[in-house]
Amino acid sequence: MRFIRFLKSNSQDIAYGCVIDDVVRSIQGDPFGNYTVGVTVGNLNDIKLLSPCLPSKIIALAANYKGATGVTENMKEPITFIKPSTSITGPYEDIICPFKDVNVWGEAELGIVVGRRLKNASSREAKEAIFGYLCANDITADNTEGRDHHLVRSKGADSFCPVGPWIDTEFDPRDAKIEAFQNGKLIRRGNLKDRIWKDDDIIQWLSQWMTLEQGDIVLTGTPPRVVEKTYLEEGDIFEVKIEKLGSLKNKFILKGNV
Q1: How do residues 181-203 score in pLDDT, each as one tens digit?
Q2: What percent helix, strand, coil does the chain show, rounded to 5?
């Protein structure tokens, strides 16, 4: 099932729905629990989509693809960082950059959506706790004074984590292309099978030292660049494409005042 959140027509009410053959149908109940599929709402292209979930936090992995910058053969555990829940924005929403005179770039990622509260999980529990997958863009800025760009200032600004367009509960992440395009030009490419740390292992490991909540998102890293590092400029369109999962497009807007 492909679950979405959307804005109801001619109102500010938000609802859950599902996408079946490009048609949106309403969801009665909780997508994470008990629900029924309701009436047809409209065509997907006519619906205002929002982020498909509202996580309490976003946990992200760095250097998780073979050939990616920072990967070493002797990594004993994933490199992780956190993006705040307020960095979430939806498909087709603008990425608003608050920084002036700072390099900013996008990173195509597969996101795991956690389906239930999890702590000290077994391998089986971790696998069962994966609710589904979504496309994500880990927007990143250079930090001040040459500091580590995995610090919160670089990763945590409002709108710096576009996700969507839906959560796909049936997607198979074991072998699918993942690509990033900037203004239609391919800038990153990889295959999900080339990730170093796999989904069940990531979720289980995280749960040993961090409580995962229902709806939390885990970003699983970005594939290697196929061109020189490319920074976002005013009006640029950044697209994340994951084979058989979907695509996520957002425009970059510069409103630097910091």
Answers
A1: 999 999 999 999 999 999 999 99
A2: 10, 45, 45
